[in-house]
Amino acid sequence: MRQIDTAGNTGPAASRSWTVDATAPVAPAITVGPAALTNLTSASFSFTGEAAASFECSLDGAAFTSCASPKPYSGLAEGAHTFQVRQVDTAGNTGPASNRAWTVDSTPPGTVIDAAPSDPSTADVGFDFSSPDGGVAFECELDGGGFSVCSSPASYAGLASGPHTFDVRAIDSAGNVDPTPASFTWSVS
């Protein structure tokens, strides 16, 4: 564009260039987030995307709001959660969201001794135990010697005379440990 005045003089041309960008950015990559099952009531997400794009995040279906990486959350309730993040490029195009689902389980399992020695005065004893919660592992401890992985039934032979204590605790797949192990005390004579 240029001007010509009433005397016929032509001025220099003025120009303006622009770029039309109607292409939405791709879904961002979520690079860090919680495990699919966790006992933590907090989570942090890291994500990457297109250069100069901004991000919008949503937790559990809430409205998308502006966010930055890393995006932390705390005070999460037990149960299933979903995190979403999407990009908005410099032209204002909004891309699709990336999703990460996980479950918070912070409730410890219980542990039950189902069968203890019928004659606990002998040096050879066995214990059957279980948990009302499914999908657990167990750790056993004899006489305060430290917990180690075990399975039911657990047997001990050749125990010395005197008092003994067997403790067993369940650990669920989220990593929660029974804070009150099941316990049985007896004395070998």
Find the CATH superfamily of the largest domain. Answer: Immunoglobulins
Helices, by number, come to: 0
Main beta sheet: 5 strands, mixed
- Strand order in the largest sheet: 2-8-7-4-5
Q: Tell me which oligomeric state these chains represent.
A: single chain
Binned, the helix content reads under 10%
Number of domains: 2
Nearest-angstrom radius of gyration?
32 Å
Question: Please, what is the average pLDDT?
Answer: 92
CATH topology grouping of the largest domain: Immunoglobulin-like
Q: How big a fraction of the residues is strand?
A: 35-45%
**Could you say which overall geometry the principal axes of the C-alpha atoms support?**
rod-shaped
Q: N-to-C SSE series?
A: EEEEEEEEEEEEEEE
Which CATH architecture of the largest domain is right? Sandwich
In terms of topology, how is this protein built?
Blueprint: E1 29-32, E2 37-38, E3 43-48, E4 54-59, E5 65-67, E6 71-73, E7 79-88, E8 98-104, E9 112-115, E10 125-130, E11 136-142, E12 148-150, E13 154-156, E14 162-172, E15 182-188
Parallel strand pairs: 2-8
Antiparallel strand pairs: 1-3, 3-6, 4-5, 4-7, 7-8, 9-10, 10-13, 11-12, 11-14, 14-15
